[in-house]
Specification:
The chain is an alpha+beta fold and about 400 residues long. It has 14 helices and 14 strands. It has three domains: about 35 residues; about 100 residues, no CATH class; about 240 residues, Deoxyribonuclease I, Chain A (4-Layer Sandwich), CATH 3.60.10.
Length: about 400
């Protein structure tokens, strides 16, 4: 018993000594092994590796969550700015004519990050972003109505042919194939007149500068408006009006081509947006001034067109290169009383410029007052110029239908 007590006391003392050795466990020191808690062993531990990965994941997940929410908010803000500010501010004017597909670039990376990092419930933000992108890009799904038996129907084609630079024979061949009752062309060069007359025998034809029309029905008259005074200089209002006598009665057709924003955009671009931005030229008063003056002239021309059209006592059609893209404030403000053919019954994006590759704007339009109803609308796929042509089929409503006020 005495020997047993002595052994216990010795074991107890040795245990206390081991406890005083820092950084070593009793078992390891008894076994004479190394220290498993060194830095290299801690980092090589599977549990600690998983912890480091989790920390990095958390660090990435936080900004992804903020971006996932901010992205659709930014897209909605862009829609509101274009629609409600638009041509009233030079910066949103420029943005109206920029390729909007670029705004879709963050969508897929954000979806992948949300799926990988979570939480998946944030995917609703990208559903909202997708819907906003479709609105920004002008996507439509149309439901063409059935034609009314006995109603007068009219098929209209419009195209900016860019002076026939892609070949006037191609223009004639494609437009003849459309079998239209009314063909409305812009940017026609006088050198094209003879070829167009030959190509559209059997139609009534009128020519006026860049504007050209062929009609299966008699053209009673052509009105060329007076020049506008803009910034002390007389400028063309860039439209003509025809009175055409159809079996359902006379109609007013406006062939329009307001001034292009190209001058302002080219001044802004200079020798490249990057160089302009680096040297601060994008924000110079001269650059802004060109964009602002160009826009004001276009607005003045559009107001002249609309003022004349609203005075018409007969059904009105307006066709041509309007130079007004989707979400344009000017279109909604000045032409909002008229129905746009693509918006009414078209499907897809309806882009018409720049052709033949990578078109990103819908600026070629056919619009009508309330005395018409659109039955079909499509973009002509044939490459006729740097614009795609558009065609629409309409029927005339009851003659008593009220015109836009």
């Amino acid at each position: 018993m005495g020997n047993f007590s002595v052994k216990c006391i010795r074991l107890h003392q040795s245990g206390l000594a081991l406890q005083r050795v820092p950084g070593r466990s009793r078992i390891d020191q008894r076994a004479g092994g190394g220290d498993p808690m060194t830095t290299s062993n801690v980092l090589s531990s599977p549990n600690n590796k998983n912890s480091a990965v989790r920390r990095r994941t958390v660090m990435l997940a936080t900004p992804v969550r903020y971006l996932a929410i901010a992205y659709p908010i930014a897209l909605i803000a862009a829609i509101l700015a274009l629609r409600f500010i638009g041509e009233r501010w030079w910066a949103t004017t420029v943005a109206l004519y920029a390729p909007r597909l670029l705004l879709a670039m963050p969508l897929l990376p954000l979806i992948a990050c949300i799926v990988w990092l979570g939480p998946w419930r944030l995917l609703w933000t990208q559903v909202l972003a997708t819907a906003a992108l479709l609105v920004l890009m002008g996507f439509r799904v149309g439901w063409p109505p059935a034609a009314t038996p006995g109603a007068f129907r009219l098929r209209v084609v419009s195209c900016n042919i860019d002076t026939g630079s892609f070949g006037i024979d191609t223009v004639i061949r494609s437009l003849r194939a459309a079998d239209a009752d009314l063909i409305v062309l812009q940017a026609v060069h006088p050198n094209n007149y003879e070829s167009l007359r030959t190509g559209f025998t059997g139609y009534a034809i009128r020519e006026s500068g860049q504007f050209w029309v062929a009609s299966r029905f008699p053209i009673r008259d052509l009105m060329e408006p007076q020049e506008l005074l803009h910034a002390g200089v007389l400028r063309s209002p860039r439209f003509v009006r025809y009175h055409i006598v159809t079996p359902a009665g006379p109609i007013a057709v406006y062939n329009v081509h307001p001034i292009s924003p190209r001058d302002g955009l080219e001044e802004l671009r200079g020798d490249g947006f990057r160089h302009q931005l680096l040297r601060g030229a994008l924000f110079e008063a001269k650059t802004r001034g060109v964009v602002i003056d160009n826009t004001r002239l276009r607005m003045q021309q559009l107001r002249t067109i609309v003022t004349d059209a609203r005075q018409s006592s007969i059904p009105v059609l307006i066709a041509g290169d309007t130079n007004l893209p989707a979400l344009s404030w000017a279109f909604a403000h000045l032409l909002g009383d008229y129905r746009d053919g693509f918006a009414a019954v078209g499907t897809g994006l309806g882009y018409t410029f720049p052709a033949p590759r990578h078109a990103w704007m819908r600026i070629d339009r056919i619009v009508a007052d309330s005395r018409w109803r659109f039955l079909q609308f499509k973009v002509i796929a044939a490459v006729l110029s740097d614009h795609y042509g558009v065609s629409a089929e309409l029927e005339m409503r009851d003659a008593a239908a009220a015109r836009p006020q």
